[in-house]
Design goal:
three-stranded antiparallel β-sheet
């Protein structure tokens, strides 16, 4: 297979431009056909693993979980994506012959097959086969979105009651997620029942319209920006980044009464419907204070080395310095964590942050950031031993690893082995081995020296005499 791949790559370099488009189509069909072969091999792997596990008293769910992890390892994808691929493979190969044939012929992609499987997941085997029959005429002749729509309509006609039950189950899957976007932006996504989603977007539309009528669009913000700012303000209880904050008129102190404190004067006014009662309370629950870790290499204070914002990733040094200087925001939202120059070793946490139990667990979360299983980027849910405690593994930083719940349970399967330590953790299964290392901490790229007093460690180097540093760094 490697020789074929090599010849394919080398042969494409001398192609006549007039033939390029035809070759691209043929390669796309070849890629899709390869996906079909993968689905068939995934079923073979699952059946063999199930036979072995059944003899050992291992449940079918545990088998599916470990095979999903194995497939993720082989395809360089997360275990969850590997498990989804296993489900698609079993459905297409065993229950949907027309879809399987189109995938083998290369006329539909793996993603198209995945969409069809998802739209028929709640049907009986007979009804799923009927949908497969109903869509055979459009396979390879329409877009993935339209193909999914045809499958959805056919499934609903066959079993409308099951569609209603599926909708009820889907409501239990509602959730919110955050993922990085370019230029230090983020995608905040909510999966909601349609009624709630439509209500939310209507409320944000109304807020944007009301703001523009009050002159909010006169500051240069468009409707999309006004909606985004309204979302932030309603959820976090503070003005959105980039939104203009109207000055609060000073309230003269009456005799016998102190003037309002600076932080009170700067606080945003209560939103409509949240005016305080006579005792100073409002009818809205308080907005919780949220702590987010900001890993700051010392280089970020004086140079251009990026810092790392938990849940997002690297951010530019100038933005990190802005967070550090913004005491009102940083004290309530950002917990500053300083790392040593050269090594990235954790040397101090923001003294104003609330203390949490389990310092070892906190350290591992900061070090690993996401699940340490190769290709898995799920949030850390468990802190566990890399070498099992039952096998003599020590409860130490070097033997501790962060993992999602799924991967932590899966590593107990006898056909999947995890070895190594915190610096280099290796997962091995059925002849495949992949190694993961913790992400490089900010500050590990190049050394910088200075003396840091008032922190848990002291690191000494030389800096230019005219360099200005924060008060706690000399």
């Amino acid at each position: 297979m490697r020789a074929v791949r090599h010849r394919l790559v080398e042969g494409a370099r001398g192609v006549n431009p007039d033939a390029a488009l035809v070759l691209i189509r043929e390669l796309e069909e070849l890629k899709n056909a390869a996906s079909a072969v993968q689905t068939e091999l995934a079923v073979v792997l699952h059946d063999a693993q199930r036979a072995a596990d059944q003899a050992r008293g291992i449940t079918a769910d545990e088998t599916a979980r470990v095979v999903g992890s194995q497939l993720g390892l082989a395809r360089r994808e997360s275990p969850r994506v590997g498990t989804r691929f296993l489900g698609v493979s079993r459905a297409v190969t065993q229950e949907m012959p027309h879809t399987a044939a189109a995938l083998r012929a290369g006329t539909i992609s793996e993603w198209h097959a995945t969409q069809v499987v998802a739209e028929t997941a709640y049907l009986s085997l007979a009804d799923r086969a009927a949908v497969d029959e109903a869509i055979k005429g459009v396979l390879g002749k329409t877009s993935g979105r339209r193909l999914a729509g045809v499958a959805r309509a056919a499934a609903y006609r066959l079993d409308p009651a099951a569609a209603v039950a599926r909708r009820a189950r889907a409501k239990r899957e509602r959730r919110v997620s955050l993922r990085p976007a370019p230029d230090t932006m983020t995608w905040l996504t909510a999966l909601l029942p349609v009624k709630d989603g439509v209500a939310c977007i209507a409320a944000l539309n109304a807020a944007a319209t009301a703001s523009s009528h009050k002159g909010g669009d006169g500051d240069g913000r468009g409707k999309g920006q006004l909606m985004a700012d309204a979302l932030v303000e309603r959820i976090s209880g503070r003005p959105a980044c980039g939104a203009p904050v109207p000055p609060t008129p000073a309230t003269p102190a009456t005799p016998g009464q102190d003037a309002p404190a600076a932080d009170q004067a700067d606080a945003p006014a209560a939103a409509a419907g949240e005016q305080p009662e006579a005792d100073g309370t409002t009818d809205k629950p308080p907005v919780p204070v949220v702590a987010v870790n900001l890993l700051v290499p010392i280089e970020s204070l004086t140079g251009e080395a990026p810092a790392d914002l938990e849940g997002f990733g690297p951010i530019p040094a100038d933005l990190a310095r802005q967070f550090l200087a913004d005491h009102d925001t940083a004290g309530g939202v950002i917990r500053r964590v300083f790392t040593a120059p050269g090594t990235g070793e954790l040397i101090s946490m923001d003294s104003r942050a609330r203390r949490y139990p389990g310092l070892l667990a906190a350290f591992v979360r900061l070090r690993d950031r996401t699940c340490r299983t190769p290709f898995c980027d799920e949030p850390i849910e468990h802190i566990d031993h890399i070498q099992r405690h039952a096998d003599g593994g020590a409860t130490s930083v070097s033997n501790a690893g962060g993992g999602c719940a799924r991967c932590n349970y899966t590593k107990e399967h006898p056909d999947l082995t995890v070895t190594g330590d915190a610096d280099q953790r290796t997962t091995t299964t059925r002849g495949l081995s992949e190694t993961s290392t913790p992400p490089s901490p900010p500050g590990a790229e190049r050394p910088l020296a200075c003396t840091i007093r008032g922190l848990s460690k002291r690191v000494t180097i030389r800096l230019p005499k005219d360099l200005r540093l924060p008060a706690n760094i000399r």
